[in-house]
Specification:
This protein has 402 residues and is an alpha+beta fold. The chain folds into 3 domains: 48-150, 2-Layer Sandwich (Beta-Lactamase), CATH 3.30.450; 158-241, Helix Hairpins, CATH 1.10.287; 252-398, 2-Layer Sandwich (Heat Shock Protein 90), CATH 3.30.565. The chain has helices at 7-11, 13-17, 20-51, 70-76, 86-91, 101-108, 152-206, 210-241, 256-266, 268-271, 294-312, 343-346, 366-376, and strands at residues 55-59, 65-68, 112-120, 123-135, 141-150, 252-254, 279-282, 290-292, 318-325, 329-336, 380-386, 390-398. The strands form 3 sheets. It has a 5-stranded antiparallel beta sheet with strand order 2-1-5-4-3, sandwiched between helices. Strands 7-9-10-12-11 form a 5-stranded mixed beta sheet. Strands 6-8 form a two-stranded antiparallel sheet.
Length: 402
């Protein structure tokens, strides 16, 4: 049986007798106590870091993750970060990010802040990142502490607040402009109608010569054009007035499925020239009523369907769905397989007077009017689109309490 070697055997009995052994044992105990204290401190610091609601990452100058807090694993869905590159874990990139706050902190040896958009769980999340250099005894940065705060919800609420403020301002402006336009428009329309009523008498006075007939035909054409454009201006003014708050809204219970079917029937003259099955309806008959103004909701859905028809250009398909979600929302979605919307334009779609149509084919109040109507119905309207593959507009309306 092998004999266990003791400390006395290593240093010799003589030194043991001189008290050296006791001194070594004391040092060992001190080191053990110191290690226990350090481990306790480490656990305390880790507990503090894990308790912080922001993601914390320590990264070396060569972009390798050195340590993280517990929240990092749950946010980025990784079990281990050992020897992994930060841009690989955070962004799925093979190379460092072009606007890296860590790199700037290393270059300037000072605190650096920035805002980064990081894709998480199929959506873009906004992170406010603070990069702070961790310096050695000579003051040189040897690693960087990244403090990452998720501000996605704050940015969304900020955007909604700013948009609401903008829409309120535009509403006041639109109401003023609309009323100012209505007065001269009424005069132009009234006088044009008066001339049209007198045209038969004027025709008799002008005689039956060819030159007189040509002149009379021109008058008829001009008057019809004036009246047509006046009616068009009335529609534009009507759309502008939807931006201003209603004084006495009268909301009634509405069967949204019946409303959609009525609109499709209204578009029969336009749809009959398209291939069969171009517009498909998938309506949930079990959904409750919504509470709103029927004419305005018709305007919204009609606008979305007409936009979808413009997008497919007679070569795609349109699907209209209704469903009930989470015991509160009635969802109406209009999906097309058309040209889609460029990413740079999506954030501007609901802004007044923004349009991607050629000059003369749209003035950019359709979708902004839809947004305002749905907002006044306490609902939401959103769009998901991919250029070249189509778009889906989704309207959410609260159901009627009746």
């Amino acid at each position: 049986m092998q004999k266990t070697t003791k400390l006395e055997d290593l240093i010799g009995l003589g030194h043991t007798k001189l008290g050296f052994f006791g001194e070594v044992q004391k040092k060992v105990q001190e080191l053990q106590a110191s290690n226990r204290e350090l481990e306790k401190k480490r656990q305390e610091i880790q507990a503090i870091l894990d308790g912080i609601t922001d993601v914390i990452v320590v990264v070396t100058p060569d972009y390798r993750i050195q340590s993280v807090n517990q929240l990092f694993h749950s946010v980025f869905n990784v079990n281990t970060t050992e020897n992994m590159l930060c841009h690989k874990v955070l962004r799925g990139r093979k190379h460092p990010c072009p606007e890296c706050p860590m790199q700037k902190a290393l270059e300037t040896n000072s605190l650096n802040r920035g805002l980064s958009i990081i894709p998480l769980n199929g959506k873009n999340s906004h992170f406010e990142i603070t990069a702070s250099p961790l310096r050695d005894k000579n003051g040189h940065p040897e690693s960087v502490l990244l403090l990452m705060r998720d501000v996605t919800m704050e940015k969304e609420y900020e955007a909604k607040y700013l948009y609401t403020e903008k829409m309120a301002t535009i509403g006041l402006l639109a109401a003023g402009v609309a009323h100012e336009i209505n007065n001269p428009l009424a005069a132009i329309s009234g006088f044009a109608e008066g001339i049209k009523r007198r045209m038969p008498a004027l025709d008799k006075c002008m005689g039956s010569s060819q030159s007189c007939r040509i002149l009379a035909d021109d008058f008829h054409e001009y008057i019809d054009t004036i009246l047509t454009e006046c009616n068009r201006c009335r529609e534009i003014v009507k759309n502008l007035l939807t931006f201003s708050p209603r004084k006495q809204p009268e909301f009634l219970a509405i069967d949204i499925n019946d409303l959609i079917e009525d609109i499709v029937k209204l578009l029969h003259h336009k749809l009959k020239h398209l291939p069969p099955g171009t517009v498909k309806l998938d309506l949930d008959r079990s959904i409750p009523y919504v509470r709103g103004i029927s004419a305005e909701l018709k305007q919204v859905i009609l606008n979305l369907i007409l936009n979808a028809l413009d997008a497919i250009k007679s070569k795609g398909a349109i699907s209209i769905h209704t469903r009930f979600k989470k015991d509160r929302w009635i969802i109406i979605s209009v999906q097309d397989t058309g040209c889609g919307i460029p990413e740079k334009n999506i954030q501007h779609l609901f802004e007044p007077f923004f349009t991607t149509k050629p000059v003369g084919q749209g003035i950019g109040v359709g979708l902004s009017t839809c947004y305002n109507i749905i907002h006044q119905h306490d609902g939401e309207i959103n769009v998901i689109s991919q250029e070249g593959k189509g778009s889906t507009f989704e309207v959410k309306l609260p159901h009627s309490c009746d």
